[in-house]
Design goal:
CATH class of the largest domain: Alpha Beta
Largest sheet: 5 strands, antiparallel
Strand order of the largest sheet: 1-2-3-4-5
Number of strands: 16
Radius of gyration: 24 Å
CATH architecture of the largest domain: 3-Layer(aba) Sandwich
Number of domains: 2
CATH superfamily of the largest domain: Gcn5-related N-acetyltransferase (GNAT)
Helix content: 25-40%
Number of helices: 7
Strand content: 25-35%
Oligomer: single chain
Shape: elongated
């Protein structure tokens, strides 16, 4: 099904027909610096990439063309093989700055909620990709969460923002999930994690503290944990995992310098993560994890 906007024609993607023109985007390292894969070396490689993406279950992809112009300047669509349809687009660098990505993405969202009958769409955008974040916001996608990611051609992990939109406005029933750990000494535990993981006490009640909250990050809300004072016999050990993007090695050095107990050195896990761990006095195991 062809889609049209005031300036664009969106034609169902044909890897054989469109690969040559789209190689201007897929073969450009600047454009592909935001992509999940490195730039393609040849038009044949671009054709293979497009064919693989188009073959994913549920994929609906279009070549972007200026109205009346047969040459493709980019690709946009809904990715296949995802639980929620994933909005995606790419444009040749020469076409940036004209609003084409916003125009194409808006048409695809309208199609998703109309003819395609989807209830939701979402886009995963790197936190430093301000152009794509702006596109998402212009077409009504809002932030739904964040996660650490690392693509094989990147030399370090990066932060991804998950932005989404529902066909009908819907409240988010769970805004935040906060674990509560029983500890014998709330003040000592918060001080330990302040030194080891740069945590910040968000509230504390009692003298000595009976309960306290700790936030990891500089903002008023974010990843957090509560501590409540209990007798040692009521402090059954649990495992708490912290997912980090930057500063993994520095955090390990800080944990070691803080004199924490049971420090386990960094290892590369079979599931593609680098992790180290340490224990609180009650036996709680804190795992710090980053994409490997």
């Amino acid at each position: 099904m062809e889609l049209k906007t005031s300036r664009l024609d969106l034609t169902p993607l044909d890897p054989e027909e469109h690969a040559d023109a789209l190689h201007a985007a897929y073969g450009d390292p600047v454009v592909m610096s935001w992509w999940t894969r490195p730039a393609t070396a040849t038009e044949a490689e671009t054709r293979q990439l497009l064919a693989a993406d188009a073959a994913q279950p549920g994929a609906a992809l279009w070549a972007i063309r200026r109205a009346g112009d047969p040459a493709a300047i980019g690709m946009a669509g809904l990715l296949g093989g995802t639980a929620i349809p994933g909005l995606s687009w790419i444009l040749a660098e020469s076409e940036w700055g004209h609003g084409f990505a916003t125009e194409a993405a808006s048409a695809i969202v309208e199609h998703a909620f109309g003819a395609a009958g989807h209830d939701r769409v979402e886009a995963w955008v790197e936190s430093t990709n301000t152009r794509s974040i702006a596109v998402c916001r212009k077409i009504g996608l809002t932030e739904r969460g964040r996660l650490a990611q690392r693509y094989e051609h990147r030399d370090r992990p990066h932060e991804m923002i998950v932005l989404g939109r529902a066909r009908h406005p819907e409240p988010t029933s769970v805004l935040h999930l906060e674990p509560v750990l029983p500890v014998t000494d709330v003040a000592a535990t918060t001080e330990l994690l302040r030194a080891a993981l740069a945590g910040r006490v968000s509230f504390s009640a009692g003298e000595p503290p009976e309960v306290a909250g700790m936030v990891f990050g500089p903002w008023s809300a974010g990843p957090s944990v509560q501590f409540v004072r209990k007798p040692r016999g009521e402090c059954a050990p649990v495992v708490l995992t912290l997912d980090v993007v930057a500063g993994f090695d520095e955090l390990y050095a800080a944990v070691t310098a803080a004199g924490t107990a049971g420090v386990e050195p960094p290892v590369r896990e079979p599931w593609g993560r680098r992790e180290f761990a340490f224990r609180l006095p009650e036996g709680h195991r804190i795992v710090v994890s980053t994409p490997g």
